[in-house]
Design brief:
Blueprint (H helix, E strand, L loop, with lengths): L38 E12 L2 E12 L3 E6 L5 H8 L7 E6 L2 E2 L5 H9 L1 E4 L11 H12 L5 H14 L16 H12 L6 E5 L7 H18 L2 E5 L3 H7 L2 E6 L2 E6 L1 H4 L5 H7 L2 H17 L33
Parallel strand pairs: 3-8, 3-9, 6-7, 7-8
Antiparallel strand pairs: 1-2, 1-4, 4-5, 9-10
Helix pairs in contact: 3-4, 3-5, 4-5, 6-7, 7-10
Length: about 325
C-alpha cells in the first residue's frame, strides 16, 4: 500500500422548438488518467486569516488535469475559503496560486478574465438569480463573455446546457422558486458549464438532496467529466460521493492539506480526524457500496461468484480496504 503523499440579464425566452438531445456522454471514451506532472492548479504556502483567526497556514495543493479531486475537512477548516482563494474571489494573506499557468493573484484584468472564462462554479443551492428564469440565468455568462452573440443563439446554447445538466426543456422558462432543490442545483450546473470551461468547482453539490437524487447527481458529474474532459474540484462531506466518483482526496486539517491520495491511501492516514471520518459507521457503509458497485461492474452475481459467461479477468479485484473495515459476509 502506498503511503499518502504530503503536498509539498434579460434574454429572449420565447417558445421555440427544442433542440435534439445531445449525443449521450456515456458513449464517450473514458478519460485518460492525469500524469503527475500535468498540474492545472498549484497552491503553495497559502495563508488565510480573518483578523486573529488563522484559517490556512502554509497550505500546499496541486490539482492534476482531468481528475475529480474531493476536498474534505471538518466544519470551519477552510474548504470554501480555499476555493474562493483559487478563484480570486478572496485575496489571501500570503502564498502563490497558479490556475492554468496564470497567477490567480494578479490584478491584470486580462489575466483575471482568462481564469474567469476557464472556470465554472456551482455554489451551494445553485446561487441562482431569483428574479431571472433558468434560461436567463444560464445566459448571464454568455452575455458577459460573448456579448456579440445574437439572442437566438444564446437561447439555443442555454437550452443545450439545460438539457446537458439533465433538466427538461420546460425548465428553461421557470424561476428558481418554481424548482425543487435538486433542479436548482442542475440549473446552477448548467450555468457553470455555459462557456465550456475546462475547470469545474463544486461546493457541496449533493447537500440537501435525498440519497437517490444525490446518487443521480454524482453519476451526472462523472458522466460530464468524462464526456467534456473536465477537471473537477469538489468540496463535499458526502462519503458516498467520495467513494463513487473521486480519483483523489485532499484532507484539510490543522490549517493545511495534511495529505492527498487515493481513498485507499487516505484510509491509512494516521490522523485523529481522518481516522474518525474514514472509519466511522457512515464510511463503512460507503465502502460497502463501493465494493458492491465494483462487484457489479466485474460481472459477479449476488453470491460474489463470477457469472458463467463472464470472462475470468472480470472477477472483482482484491480490496485494499483493511479487512476490519470490509463488509462482513452473511
Amino acid at each position: 500500500m502506498a503511503t499518502p503523499t504530503t503536498p509539498t440579464a434579460d434574454a429572449d425566452t420565447r417558445d421555440r422548438a427544442p433542440l435534439a438531445a445531445p449525443e449521450s456522454p456515456a458513449e464517450s471514451p473514458p478519460r485518460k488518467k492525469a500524469s503527475g506532472d500535468d498540474v492545472i492548479i498549484s497552491v503553495k504556502g497559502l495563508d488565510n486569516r480573518f483578523g486573529s483567526q488563522v484559517v490556512h497556514e502554509g497550505l500546499d495543493l496541486d490539482v492534476r488535469r482531468g481528475e475529480i479531486i474531493g476536498v474534505v475537512g471538518g466544519s470551519g477548516s477552510g474548504k470554501s475559503v480555499l476555493m474562493r482563494s483559487i478563484l480570486a474571489l478572496r485575496k489571501p494573506n500570503a502564498g502563490e496560486i497558479e490556475v492554468l499557468g496564470v497567477d490567480a493573484r494578479s490584478e491584470d484584468p486580462e489575466m483575471r478574465q482568462r481564469i474567469e472564462r476557464s472556470t465554472g462554479v456551482l455554489f451551494q443551492d445553485g446561487a441562482l438569480f431569483s428574479s431571472l428564469t433558468v434560461g436567463e440565468n444560464v445566459q448571464v455568462p454568455l452575455k458577459e463573455y460573448h456579448p456579440d452573440l445574437p439572442d437566438s443563439l444564446r437561447y439555443e446554447l442555454a437550452l443545450l446546457k439545460v438539457k446537458l445538466a439533465g433538466l427538461p426543456a420546460s425548465a428553461l422558462n421557470k424561476l428558481p422558486s418554481q424548482l425543487s432543490g435538486g433542479m436548482r442545483k442542475r440549473a446552477g450546473l448548467a450555468r457553470a458549464l455555459a462557456v465550456d470551461p475546462p475547470l469545474l468547482f463544486l461546493d457541496e453539490p449533493t447537500a440537501g438532496l435525498d440519497p437517490i437524487a444525490a446518487s443521480e447527481f454524482d453519476e451526472l458529474i462523472q458522466t460530464l467529466q468524462k464526456a467534456l474532459g473536465l477537471t473537477v474540484f469538489l468540496i463535499t462531506h458526502d462519503l458516498d460521493t467520495l467513494y463513487a466518483i473521486c480519483d483523489r482526496v485532499a484532507v484539510i486539517a490543522d490549517k493545511k492539506v495534511i495529505a492527498v491520495g487515493t481513498l485507499e491511501e487516505i484510509e491509512q492516514l494516521d490522523h485523529p480526524w481522518a481516522k474518525e471520518y474514514f472509519h466511522g459507521p457512515r464510511a463503512r457503509a460507503a465502502q460497502a457500496g463501493r465494493d458492491r458497485a465494483t462487484d457489479s461492474d466485474s460481472g459477479s452475481d449476488d453470491d460474489g461468484e463470477p457469472e458463467p459467461d463472464a470472462p475470468a479477468k472480470a472477477a472483482a479485484p482484491k480490496s485494499d480496504v483493511p479487512s476490519r473495515w470490509q463488509p462482513k459476509e452473511d
